[in-house]
Amino acid sequence: MNPDLHLWLIPLVPFAGFLVNGLLGRKLPKAVVTTIALIASLIPAVQVAGIVTKFSSLSLPHVEHLGTWIAAGSFHADFTFQLDQLTLVMLCVVTGVGFLIHVYSVGYMAEEEGYWRFFAYMNLFLFFMLTLVLAENFLLMFVGWEGVGLASYLLIGFYFTRDSAANAGKKAFIVNRIGDFGFLIAMFLLIAHFGSLSFGDVFSQIGAHPEWQSGFLTAIALFLVLGATGKSAQIPLYVWLPDAMEGPTPVSALIHAATMVTAGVYMIARTHVIFDRSPLALAVVATIGVATAFFAATIGILQTDIKRVLAYSTISQLGYMFLGCGVAAYSAGIFHLVTHAFFKALLFLAAGSVIHALSGEQDMRAMGGLRKKIPITFWTMTAAVLAISGVPPFAGFVSKDEILYQAFLSPNGGKIFWAVGLLTAGLTSFYMFRLWYMTFFGERRTPEAAHPEDLAPVHARSDTKLTLEAEPHAHPVHESPWIMLAPLVILAILSVIGGFMGWPEGLGGGNWFSHFLEPAVKTVHMSYEQATVALATGGPNMPNASPAGNKQLELTLAAVSTLVAFLGWLFAHILYYAKPTLPARLADNLRPVYALVKNKYWVDEIYGALIVTPVLFIARWVLGVLVDRVVIDGGTLTAGYSAQGLGALVARIQSGNIRSYAGWLALFAAVLLAISYFGWTTHFYLR
Amino acid sequence: MVPIAYYLVLSAVLFSIGVAAFLIKRNIITVFMSIELMLNAVNLAFIAFSRQWSQITGHLQVNGQIFVFFVMVVAAAEAAVGLAIIIAVFRARNTLNVDSIDLMKL
Lengths: 687, 106
Fold this sequence. Notes:
The complex is a heterodimer. Chain A has helices at about 10-25, 30-55, 85-110, 115-135, 140-155, 165-195, 200-210, 215-230, 240-245, 250-260, 265-270, 270-275, 280-300, 305-325, 330-355, 375-390, 395-410, 415-440, 480-495, 510-520, 530-535, 550-580, 580-590, 590-600, 605-650, 660-680; strands at about 60-70, 75-85. By secondary structure, chain A is mainly α. In chain A, helix 17 packs antiparallel against helix 18 (about 415-440). Chain B is an all-alpha fold. Chain B has a domain at about 25-95. Chain B has helices at about 5-25, 30-55, 65-95. The longest helix of chain B has about 30 residues, at about 65-95.
């Protein structure tokens, strides 16, 4: 029997912080707001650390039931939290990175309007995110799922006086609704088929029925994937994430890089039992992942806003995580989630530090030569760039390589996934070092003497400046205060050494992470007959049916991807350091391709024309004018006016003249008398 | 023995006179008197029917006569209240013409 861990405290403490700061923060002094926010994010981290120390003595999964939430007939959804290896990993990431980013925000947001509001929202976000990862049933998870969407919306629109920020918030919310719709349908299907939304119930029922293959499980899985693509910004619903960079930079780091956007990956890993039974759904996940990874990486190459480069990079890295899940290597996907949380949070925070140093400048064409001026930011960011680019032995190398290795081993089309993934790794390395060179090397460029790439028409939205984010008056370039640098340093250390948690066996490591996570995400074995049938019918992606890799192969693949990473670096070095005029000439020679990528494949415009415009048309004219004005308003107004007219008619009887009343009275008394005597008939004369 | 029809015809005539007076007369006191006339027409009908009923059953039936007392009590109360109202109206508006007392009109 496990001791009571009071799991409910973990999400509830940030919620308390949200309530205090949200309700009273306006009147509290800044120091108090800061203290409350930091304590509210520190306590969960401490509690999680406490759980880590006694984790090995627990029997898993550890479930804590707090009470019934909804009970309807035999169906019930409860307030139940569960803890297993997967939850623990997510808890560590969310509370750890969350706390570091809270600390960073104290420095970054110091001079902002609505300081208290910012921290209230951040605590609210932690509450929902922790609910999401701790939930033991789909419905409670959905509460967290929606809640982080709400917090994301509030924080993207933090500078709500600026139209672009308000619109970006709306865009994120609405695009996420599409994904949430998929999640809801999946839950309805689960209720219909299992009569329960509890993870334990559903998964044990599936485990007890090895004959359930594909079929309705594929349907459920595909709807879950739709939900995941919305939250995790994958094709086709990735469009909100780049715009989400309108929020303050710590928000981009916490919500739109490290934690919330990984919720989709977490959800797939959590429900892997369903996905294991559906090769089609897994193939869809892998395809979406690898396609998104490549697609977003190509867009990232030509972005000039430092945060947007990172946003597309996030989409691309999330694609890797999807690829990992899609080839049933859930632990690899989660491992990349963890290392990505380290280095991408670091990248965003360092970018925030750069923006801070330049008093709000976000355009990389106006940067350059910052290496000497902000050395700590430079070195921490270098660690992150090396990590994301896949340079060994940094964290990103290990996790990305694990995913590529697993994809390579995957029996159905795995080589293609691997090849595209490898190409994407090269692109990643290229655009990250491009960012690195443009920001830190060369000479400081003013916005007027911008990079020659500027010649191409730039989409208006990609050039939005966060003028409100820092003081409008330009200070001389300055290093950020230590409260911002300390989280950078910690994350940089994690980005360097984080990979050793899962150092692959092929390179002499023990792959501890994957073994640790295995009980939570191990694929459920099928019966022998089932496996035979599935293999005979060519079912792809049989769990545990993939050919065993060997250390030689793993080593070779690692060497190849290292080579590719360095190639990407080399190209970036040539184009953006050695021969800085070359990119412009290349752009001139490849004008159509350049325009296509520069404009992000016109995906926003295509969505606008194909979906938004028709929907707006229907809303405005069919529903707004026809249904609302004509049918509904017309109906009610007719009813109202006719009652009024009838009333005016009848009111004439009430003349105030007492004798006319008496006359009416006498007349109708006579009529009643006549009726009572003759009865209801028109044939009086017959009587 | 006078047949009951005579009484009833008299009652109907009295009632009709009351109704007609009520509709035609403008002076509020006359209107009031016509109401009394209608009430007493009804009383007459009650008494007549009461007698008729006693004759048919062979026992004394007093239900109708008791009703007449009720009507008289109500009429007395009404006269008290009504006359008080008439005095109040006259003091306020200095007229007893019902046509000019129509403030309740919509």
